[in-house]
TrEMBL record:
Protein name per the record: Extracellular solute-binding protein
Record carries keyword Membrane: no
PANTHER family per the UniProt record, alphabetical: ABC TRANSPORTER SUBSTRATE-BINDING PROTEIN, THIAMINE-BINDING PERIPLASMIC PROTEIN-RELATED
Keywords: Signal
Keyword Transit peptide (UniProt): no
Species per Swiss-Prot/TrEMBL record: Lutispora saccharofermentans
Signal peptide: 1-18
PROSITE patterns hit by this protein: PROKAR_LIPOPROTEIN
């Protein structure tokens, strides 16, 4: 089915690209974008998106609504949003998405919000416009966000923090953690925390252990395009993670079988899963946990006010470990080569990257997140913004460290991270380690090899499609 969809997209693109005239940048001699003359019958700018749920759209953001209204009034156009409708599965959604993109006079823009549906495939098939040199205000973006091929243009970024519970750090007599801490440093803190008493083992703890044991394994060979699951390193990681989980360091339900653990982590309607939700909201768990994932995810390290707020809640706020790639969340746009009015698309993105509009982003909470502008020219203005002044020195130190990471290129944009084949496969590889980790009986060496070889063969079949 994936091959059929790919052929459908490729054929549609080949047939329709020839009908599209080359797009010309609308810029005057000064480099400023020239506004098109509004017509009596309003032109439309169409933005295609794939909502993460039935009610999610770009218009849910007050910041976006303000900018869209301003854009419509300035250019005498109507901004319209469309999403594939009536599709029941992922392959149908892909077809519906493609049919809109490759239609003559199709939507001009695609909106992406931390998930990048078909972006890699559309880029490889030449369906998107390289915005490099077409949008003047892109020159104002942080250099590390710019590449030779700009098929995705981020307009807002978010650098998640690591937030550790000060009560637990005090119990462990840990006074200070350097900003350039490492994975080894975190593991040592984790082990000290476990040594004090058995800890809860639910969603966040499981995620931490999988990161520790599996993230750095060589489970994909890029040269041969092969998944590698049946390896000594993978077997060792599975055994070690299983041993840690059942070592007595965690509070486990002694009557649980593999089926219970499967329900606990994979079946939201199950009793086991619902019991975990009760634990998450309990005061006991809140006080016991080492890492506050909720606050960490929401705290943008590029905003000193957010760091200050998290610190006031009794948290130590840190960047990602120095020897671990830190990922920037983002939202932004891609430009459809078959779009009806590409000049308007360039104008739309140029406007959202302007100093004024980017500053307006500081007033916005978008789906719980405070995004940070991608425009480097307003950095000093941001530091003097009312919400960013009068903060504690440590918050400013952490923000400056994060900004330096952004400027030096140490942070990777989520769109680029998700295009990496190994990172794409991580979730699938991880999913298939669950059974041997939580099985009722420890696998023998031969049983584990057979299980992993079966998984490896299945994943390689997927990769080759």
């Amino acid at each position: 089915m994936k091959k059929i969809v790919a052929l459908f997209i490729a054929a549609a693109f080949a047939a329709l690209t020839a009908a599209c005239s080359p797009a010309n940048k609308m810029a005057g001699a000064s480099g400023e974008v020239v506004s098109p003359e509004p017509k009596e019958n309003k032109q439309e700018l169409t933005i295609l998106y794939r909502p993460r749920d039935k009610n999610s759209t770009i218009k849910d953001s007050e910041f976006n609504r303000r900018y869209i209204k301003q854009f419509e009034e300035q250019f005498g156009v109507k901004v319209r949003f469309v999403a594939p409708a009536g599709a029941n599965n992922i392959e149908d959604i892909k077809k519906a998405f493609a049919s809109k993109l490759y239609a003559k006079d199709g939507p001009e823009l695609i909106f992406y919000d931390r998930t990048f549906f078909l972006l890699d495939q559309l880029t490889k098939q030449g369906a998107l416009v390289n915005a490099k040199g077409r949008i003047p205000n892109m020159d104002k973006m942080y250099d590390s966000l710019l590449k030779d091929d700009m098929y995705y243009i981020p307009v807002g970024i978010h650098y998640d923090s690591i937030a550790l519970n000060n009560e637990k750090l005090d119990e462990l007599a840990i006074k200070q953690i350097p900003l350039d801490w490492t994975k080894k440093d975190f593991r040592q803190i984790w082990d000290k925390w476990l040594d004090k008493s058995p800890r809860f083992f639910i969603f966040d703890e499981y995620d931490e252990l999988t990161e520790m044991y599996f993230r750095d394994l060589n489970y994909y060979d890029s040269e041969s395009n092969k998944v590698l699951m049946n390896t000594p390193e993978m077997k060792e990681a599975i055994k070690n993670m299983r041993n840690e989980i059942f070592s007595g360091s965690y509070k486990l339900n002694q009557g649980y079988t593999y089926e219970n653990y499967y329900n606990m982590f994979r079946e939201p309607q199950s009793e086991e899963y619902q019991n975990v939700l009760k634990i998450i909201w309990s005061e006991e768990y809140r006080r016991d946990r080492l890492k506050d994932v909720h606050f960490g995810d929401l705290t943008n390290l590029l905003r000193a006010s957010e760091i200050h707020n998290a610190m006031s809640k009794g948290l130590t706020v840190l960047p990602e470990q120095a020897d671990k790639k830190a990922v920037l969340k983002s939202y932004g746009f891609a430009i459809n080569k078959n779009g009806k009015n590409l000049e308007l698309a360039y104008e739309f993105i140029n406007g959202i990257l302007s100093n004024e509009t980017q500053m307006d982003m500081l007033n916005e909470v978008y789906e719980r997140y405070n995004f940070y502008p991608v425009n480097k020219e307003i950095e000093k203005d941001i530091k003097n913004y009312p919400t960013e002044k009068g903060l504690n020195e440590k918050a400013l130190e952490v923000m400056d460290y994060a900004l330096n990471q952004l400027k030096s290129g140490e942070l990777i944009l989520d769109a680029d991270f998700n295009r990496n084949e190994k990172n794409k496969l991580y979730g699938l590889a991880l999913y298939n380690t669950f059974k041997p980790v939580f099985s009722d009986k420890t696998y023998s060496e031969e049983e584990l090899s057979q299980e992993l070889q079966k998984v490896e063969d299945e994943l390689n079949l997927r990769v080759s499609e």
